[in-house]
């Protein structure tokens, strides 16, 4: 069953039929499982992995990504959770993790341009109660994201027919 | 000019070559004709190779190969298959199973000795037997038996000149895996007639229904068996040219003797990469095997759905469907499929007479391409 999730995580466009064949399971069972997971929220949604940097200019969109490290004063009873949740609710924020090290939260923020991200950090993030400081790291280039390498795939060097 | 070596001159070029030439000229070919993984060597292994180059491991190694690698191979065989080999006296590193096969045959055969070879089989077996001065005695396997070896047929082929039986399991081109009982029966037969066994186990890790039996772990076989293995298939390291021989000391010693004069040693960088492969690439290997298995299921189902009977391939990465329903012979089928639909397969007869009526299709190809290939094969069958 874990394999169904792993296959979908890698390629969510696989049909239930193909998954069933791949794993030697009845297609009804595969469909039932997937439906269960969709209903219970184990499978949140399906999406495509887009390499925005290689989209042609006509339809590309300006987008700036920054990692923001946030120091937070913890509070009795909730620790960092309430602040983390407040930050998570902003659409501009695409990920929030509680991390070890010099800061407490590491967030990913996406904006139209550098100005938009800076404004968000200074106006919205820094002003939340118990946020003590922030450190902003703008992403200059994405080489790999969520297991996908954004480089030219290596060509197939094999001869066409070999013993 | 005086005539060249008559044994070599008499050896026909591989039947695969012709299809390579046609396919190389064409655009938009989906090739199911490739006998190697479509995966590139896992990065951690390539990285170890780069490290070895950077740090100047560009020298010879000892003839038998790096002790660290031989130790790892022997302990892997022990843990995986309960096969017991002494790394320092019974194991050597070769430049792939190709060299291993050549060494084993040269060491075992005297001129005129016969080697029994169940076919269809890998294309190099018969030429290598001939180059070593021997004679191949083919015994057929039948697709109705899923290409398992009939031990009675092998027994009937034994003559006073028979020296060895050469078997590949899991097999190229059929994907057949010989059951443990068959291997045990072969071992008893070999014991009875005092024959050697050469066991080509290059596809050992690629089995999908039950596990592989290492012939060196079969008690009756242990003292008369040469096991050949390598890193080309499971670790996707074809171009590194690194494999191994495990054999009783007397045989292994003579293999090293030929190897030291003809090859000297396997490439140092490749041996270090192989050490990395055995130390840390197990996850990569099992992921690749799982992936082959999934494609295998989709591809075999696809072939059956378009009307080609296909025995279940239990190992390697080949399907060997029957194309008899097309009314064409293997060569014609393969040539027309290539020219008319741009799908390259290898005609079964190049692997021996029992391969006639079949084609070898490698599913070491990306899934969408496999699916397109099946569609094109369906269109081809419709057009007949």
Provide a compact summary of the structure.
Chain A: It comes from Pseudonocardia sulfidoxydans NBRC 16205. The complex is a heterodimer of chains A (163) and B (384). By secondary structure, chain A is of the alpha+beta class.
Give an overview in words.
The complex is a heterodimer of chains A (163) and B (384). By secondary structure, chain A is of the alpha+beta class. Chain A has two domains: 2-40; 64-140, Alpha-Beta Plaits (2-Layer Sandwich). Chain A has helices at 2-10, 16-23, 27-40, 81-88, 114-125, and strands at residues 64-72, 93-98, 105-111, 131-138, 144-145, 148-149. In chain A, helix 2 crosses helix 3. The longest helix of chain A is centred in the N-terminal third of the chain and has 14 residues, at 27-40. Chain A is extended and about 65 Å long. With 384 residues, chain B is an alpha/beta fold. Chain B is built from 13 helices and twelve strands. A seven-stranded mixed beta sheet of chain B has the order 2-8-7-6-5-3-4, sandwiched between helices. A three-stranded antiparallel beta sheet of chain B has the order 9-12-11, with helices on one face. In chain B, strands 1-10 form a two-stranded parallel sheet. The longest helix of chain B is centred in the C-terminal third of the chain and has 24 residues, at 282-305. Chain B starts with 5 loop residues before the first helix and ends with a helix.
């Amino acid at each position: 069953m874990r394999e169904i999730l792993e296959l979908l995580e890698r390629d969510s466009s696989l049909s239930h039929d193909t998954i069933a064949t791949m794993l030697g399971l009845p297609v009804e069972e595969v469909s039932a499982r997937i439906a269960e997971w969709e209903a219970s929220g184990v499978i949140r949604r399906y999406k495509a992995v887009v390499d925005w940097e290689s989209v042609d200019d006509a339809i590309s969109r300006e987008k700036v990504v920054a990692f923001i490290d946030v120091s937070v004063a913890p509070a009795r009873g909730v620790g960092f959770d309430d602040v983390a949740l407040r930050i998570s609710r902003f659409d501009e924020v695409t990920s929030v993790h509680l991390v070890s090290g010099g800061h407490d939260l590491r967030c990913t923020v996406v904006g139209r341009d550098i100005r938009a991200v800076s404004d968000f950090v200074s106006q919205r993030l820094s002003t939340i109660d118990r946020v003590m400081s922030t450190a902003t790291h703008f992403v200059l280039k994405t080489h790999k994201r969520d297991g996908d390498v954004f480089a030219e795939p290596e060509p197939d060097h094999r001869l066409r027919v070999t013993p | 000019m005086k005539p060249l070596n008559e044994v070599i001159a008499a050896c026909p070029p591989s039947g695969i070559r012709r299809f390579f030439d046609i396919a190389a000229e064409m655009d938009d070919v989906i090739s199911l004709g490739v006998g190697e993984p479509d995966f590139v060597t896992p990065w951690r292994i390539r990285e170890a190779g780069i490290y070895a180059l950077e740090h100047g491991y560009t020298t010879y190694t000892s003839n038998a190969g790096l002790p660290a690698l031989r130790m790892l191979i022997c302990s892997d065989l022990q843990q995986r298959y309960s096969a017991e080999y002494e790394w320092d006296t019974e194991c050597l590193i070769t430049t792939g199973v190709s060299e291993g096969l050549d060494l084993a045959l040269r060491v075992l055969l005297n001129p005129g000795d016969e080697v029994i070879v169940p076919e269809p089989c890998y294309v190099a077996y018969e030429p290598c037997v001939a180059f070593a001065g021997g004679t191949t005695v083919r015994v057929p396997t039948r697709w109705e038996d899923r290409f398992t070896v009939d031990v009675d047929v092998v027994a009937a082929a034994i003559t006073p000149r028979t020296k060895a039986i050469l078997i590949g399991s899991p097999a190229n081109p059929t994907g057949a895996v010989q059951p443990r009982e068959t291997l045990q029966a072969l071992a008893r037969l070999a014991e009875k007639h005092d024959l050697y066994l050469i066991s080509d186990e290059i596809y050992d890790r690629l089995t999908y229904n039950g596990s592989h039996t290492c012939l060196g772990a079969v008690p009756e076989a242990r003292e008369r068996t040469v096991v050949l293995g390598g890193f080309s298939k499971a670790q996707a390291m074809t171009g590194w040219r690194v494999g191994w021989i495990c054999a009783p000391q007397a045989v292994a010693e003579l293999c090293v003797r030929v190897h030291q004069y003809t090859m000297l040693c396997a490439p140092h960088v490749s041996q270090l990469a192989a050490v990395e492969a055995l130390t840390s690439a197990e996850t990569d290997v099992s992921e690749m095997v799982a992936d082959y298995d999934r494609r295998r299921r989709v591809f075999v189902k696809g072939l059956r759905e378009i009307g080609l009977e296909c025995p279940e391939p239990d190992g390697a990465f080949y399907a060997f469907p029957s194309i008899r329903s097309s009314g064409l012979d293997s060569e014609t089928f393969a040539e027309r499929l290539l020219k008319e639909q741009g799908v390259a397969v290898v005609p079964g007869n190049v692997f021996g007479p029992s391969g006639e009526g079949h084609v070898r299709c490698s599913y070491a190809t990306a899934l969408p391409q496999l699916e397109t290939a099946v569609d094109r094969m369906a269109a081809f069958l419709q057009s007949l």
